[in-house]
């Protein structure tokens, strides 16, 4: 069920009717009378709902019955799951897009409010950190981008990526029960394999952040065959970890709910509470790590997170070295 959170077309009215019928049959005639369209139009709308993943039982005598809400992304289910005041309220769900980052950035440039959310069933050019490609097959993942308008300086952006990792980690644990952990700075892993990546892209003007796009990719219901071969043993999904399909609409709402709460906490109390939460969810701390960045390769133990969100690495001679960017190996 793609569309926008603000429209309420006849498909919405039809869904309302079926939901109110609570699993009972509705005849084509009754539906057409109640929404004032022809029976052919009713049949076409039901077909559109089927395409969006809703499952109907059709009986020549009794009419139609909604069997299940289906597994497609659903604007209404996402909105129904929100407890936020702003995040996710302006919502667009698209069947297919090059990248939700690009789409959300366009909206931000045109003045979209903080919390505006773009979600897609499929991305044809999903992008990851450091110029990597983000594999985004249709119908099984969570590919979402949110507009942020942070007040702080550019140097605060890394803190926001850590905040995002905490929010998504909590949402994943709450909705799927999978014990995801954070690998610095903001990958989420389960049993050592990646299941979620986060990408914050800041648009800067005159040294200030004009807006920021927070992209989140969660391998929710991907199966082994959905990945390219070179990724097979490095990645996993919530489905593979838990054995059951996750309700992607509920997960998206949970991410927004967790994010808004932490974002407010951050505005009120600064980075310290976020830093502590991040540390408690981290799978990096205490581990031997290898850091590769512009300065080459360094080894040590991941010791903690600094005040700015930098990783503090303890070297063999006991020195604490801050790592601000790049990738680590654990
Ligand atoms: C990474 O781990 O490299 C970050 C991956 C971020 C992927 C998400 S999916 C939604 C949004 N749109 C994109 O093109 N990328 C982000």
From TrEMBL:
> What highest taxon heads this organism's lineage?
Bacteria
Question: Which Pfam families has this protein been placed in?
Answer: BPL_C, BPL_LplA_LipB, HTH_11
Q: Which GO terms describe its molecular function?
A: ligase activity
Q: Please tell me where biotin binds in this chain.
A: 123, 127-129, 194
Q: Which SUPFAM superfamilies match?
A: C-terminal domain of transcriptional repressors, Class II aaRS and biotin synthetases, Winged helix' DNA-binding domain
Q: Which N-terminal residues, if any, form the signal peptide? A: none
Catalysed conversion reaction: biotin + L-lysyl-[protein] + ATP = N(6)-biotinyl-L-lysyl-[protein] + AMP + diphosphate + H(+)
Q: Which residues bind DNA?
A: 28-47
In the UniProt record, does the keyword ATP-binding occur?
A: yes
Q: Which InterPro entries match?
A: aa-tRNA-synth_II/BPL/LPL, ArsR-like_HTH, AsnC-type_HTH_dom, Bifunct_BirA, Biotin_CoA_COase_ligase, BPL_C, BPL_LPL_catalytic, HTH_11
EC numbers on record: 6.3.4.15
Q: Which UniProt keywords apply?
A: ATP-binding, Biotin, DNA-binding, Ligase, Nucleotide-binding, Repressor, Transcription, Transcription regulation
| Top EC group | ligase
Q: Is Repressor one of the keywords? A: yes
Q: Where is the BPL/LPL catalytic domain?
A: 76-267
Question: What PANTHER family does UniProt report for this protein, alphabetically?
Answer: BIOTIN PROTEIN LIGASE, BIOTIN--PROTEIN LIGASE
As for family, the record states:
Belongs to the biotin--protein ligase family.
Q: What does this protein do?
A: Acts both as a biotin--[acetyl-CoA-carboxylase] ligase and a repressor.
- This protein is called Bifunctional ligase/repressor BirA
